[in-house]
Known about the structure:
5 strands, elongated, disordered C terminus
Amino acid sequence: MALGDQIYVYRPFLNVHGLYEHHGIDCGDGTVIHYRKPSETIERTSLSTFTQGQTVYAKRYPTCFIPDVVVRRAESRLGEKKYNLLSNNCEHFATWCKTGVSDSQQIRDFVPIISQMNTEKLYEPLKEALHEKDPDQANQLLNRALADIKVVWDNLQPQYNHAVDEMNVWQKVAVQALKQNREDLARAALQRKRSYQKSATEKKAKLDRLAQMTETLILNRFNVQ
Length: 225
């Protein structure tokens, strides 16, 4: 790790490790600037506070700002309290410091879970809850409810996508093997396909349950009757 690096660690969800990434900017002096939790404020902390004992990784880009500029950009937002899970989280902040673009791959991967929600059913109860509660507090509750599901989704969705891709690849391999009269290779390929198909089915079922849980959590968090 070096001055100006965008670094991240895998933070635990409940008692399970390696489920979501927490990003920050390495200042090169043993400190890191990041959106700290639970304060949800951009702070400069020690590296040990940032890592919480987890392994540190660096995110690389083909082109980005030079290290000194990255750190200055991070310093310019110290004290900011505008955290939003979907539009301004720790990864959005760190990516903006490095590239000038506020982006979060984790959130882009998370978008499908939102599309599966019954938004028409939720709109009125959520609007009512936001009117009845302090807006900042209501937004914080919503973020936390979504975050609990998001970290698990972030781990499962790439695995599901990989299983589906591999399933399709081995199907093609089996077809090509049969065309070449290699039944032995075709059987082996189909066996690999079935293994990935089983994995994809299991993960899809979990993703569907997460989507349902998202709706339930939001309704319960706001105590909607």
